[in-house]
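Chain and conformation:
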Amino acid sequence: MTPDERDAVPAGLTDAEVADRAVRGLTNANTDVKTKSVRQIVAEHALTLFNGVNLALAVLVLLTGQYRNLLFMCVVGANLLIGVAQEVRAKRMVDRLTILTQKEVTVVRASGERSLPASELVLDDLVRLSHGDQVPADGVIVSGNVSMNESLLTGEAKPVSKGPGDELLSGSFVDAGSLVARVTRVGAQGYAARINAEAKYVKAVRSEIQETLRAIIRLGTVALVPLGLGLFLRSVLMDGGSLDDAILTSVAAVIGMIPQGLVLLTSSVLAIATFRLGRRMVLVQQAYCVETLARVDTLCLDKTGTITSGEMEVSSVRPATGFSEAEVESAMAAIASANAEDANETALALLRHADALGIRAAGAARAVPFDSARKYSGCVTADGRALVMGAAAFVLGRDRAGEADRVARAFDATERVLVVGQADGFDEGNALVGEVRLMGCVAIRDEIRATAPETMRFFLGQGVELRVISGDDPRTVSAIAARAGVPHAERYVDAATLDTPEKLDAAVDEARVFGRVTPQQKRDLVRALHRRGRTVAMTGDGVNDVLALREADCSVAMASGSAAARNVSEIVLADNDFSHMPEVVAEGRRSINNLQRSASLFLVKTVFTAALALICIVMPPYPFIPIQMSLLSTAVIGIPSFVLALEPNHELVRGSFLANVLARSLPASAAIVAALFAELVVGRALSHSFSEISTVCTVLVAFVGIALVWRISQPLTPLRAALLVVIVAIVACGCTVFASFFEMEDMTGSMGVVIAAAGLIAVAFFNWMYNRSLASYETDERFARLVRKVEGRHGSND
């Protein structure tokens, strides 16, 4: 901005006018999407059906005074702590990124210029912006000619020239030049704020594991009320048991129906995954999204900041007749160096290119900065040469339009072409003097991230379909996508032509690259993919991506992008490196595959305790108390599941989570129920006491449980072999050394015979059922119906 332009700026608002607007609420506050508060996070994790059921059971146990039977509440507390701690940690890191990227704004007021936070601007304020500044609120340029970068709003990477009277949109950046603008819209009325407002409602988590857990807990809760009440009434009214004994046996049965350990294991495994990713600069705001990303079959990529680095690069230099390439490069280096203090992305690309070639720029006696009205920059060197670089039509002049066209046609349509020339000089207003002699041309293009092609190959190798969705010119996006390795990048479409929902829906099946896409169209494209049964991940960094990020199954934002994009995304790449995505997928696979294997241990207990409770209403007693269930849960379920769940595992995720789990757990549950039923019948015939029946049943469950651990641990490794030894040792110690603590009886001859006979038959029966189940569960329609019922789905095609 020239001194004359600076003097022409009108006086700003008075303090009284500012105060009046502030009282009327005409301030620029609350324009961004915020992360969830700590209170919201705690409430989401605490106020759940799982916690409510366990709290009610704990109150019942407290009434008996048998406090050691409250051990199951440790699992509930640990699960709550892990979930809250992980999400609060991610929230604070993302909030810190927002604070670090916020800058104060220079505002012109009647009392003088001052720097203020953007939130303190009021309607009609005058703001002074220069190269690199972000527009804090919608406004109109009062003075100055600039080149604006609106890529975070539109996805269009090409700078837009603007001058007095032109509109500025909040969220755009000044690419070159300086200006003074009057604020015309503040707060929720701004362009960026209106888009953000559509993304402020809480995004539902899409997770098969989470839905499975909820379905199991929901089903268990429905079953536990009548079963628990039936056991309690049977014990008190028909068997003459004490009130405390009736409560403890009923609670023991009910606890077994709720997969507490599985909930804790899931939280722990996902928390460990988020911690590992955090060390690689990947911030996970919602733990279950790690699973979702591992299941993704369609990845929608935003061009700017994802495939490209956001920077420009010199693609080629072509000298004109009579000049060498070195002369052209030396001239462009001199111009860029002379204007380095106000260097935009194009100038920075030229400087990097010159530095890479080892070109030392000639000293400049005068710099001619870029102006969006002139569309060129230049310098006068120490030896008196006047050099100019810019758009061909403006540097060469209107009377040489044909020559300018020939220059442009010689390059790819996706490249930005600058001409370099030598003039007689510049006048006082920096206008060119005399005719410009063309020295050559420089082609600039978006820089592809060095890791982008490798990352694309990874996803293609995993069967993930790639789509590129951008607000930029479709030809440009197509060319960049092809350079990055996106298949079928030549199948592009200009979204400006998709003026009806039907056209957009049809384009989803044909095109792989979408250009000039509006924020609403990005969201509609994701919805169209959902209608086709796709699991969609979306990457983005701008306000224009917010609606699509909100709609995707898993959304990934760059830390350098807008705060709104970061705050609505489940994953934030803190170092803006898209190459971390394969690491996120690998963590998801390890988590899901290992959880599927370990979850079968937990569902064994859920199924057999529900079936046993039903049997014991008719044929009492219920053979367990809570402390014995805690022993089994720790030794046969908890320890092996945690060890197996943390092993490396990068296999492809296959099939339904619940189907995989039930195929392994149901055979064990059936074998355990059969063995326990045998003991209830035989124990009564042999006049076993309640303590003896409890001891025999505990050992029988351990037998089948260890057999299941053996099967899911194949192939056996040294770690898994050691795990089996530890399990056997813990059960043995619980039945002998710590027998009194777990209320176990010393072994008698009849108890030993029942354990040996029933145990061997149960293990053999389990192995036979397990083999059949794994061989047929994927094609068994009855099994599929069972899975749908547990999930709460009833249609055959759901």
The first strand starts at residue 105 and ends at 109. The CA atoms of residues 494 and 753 lie 78 Å apart.
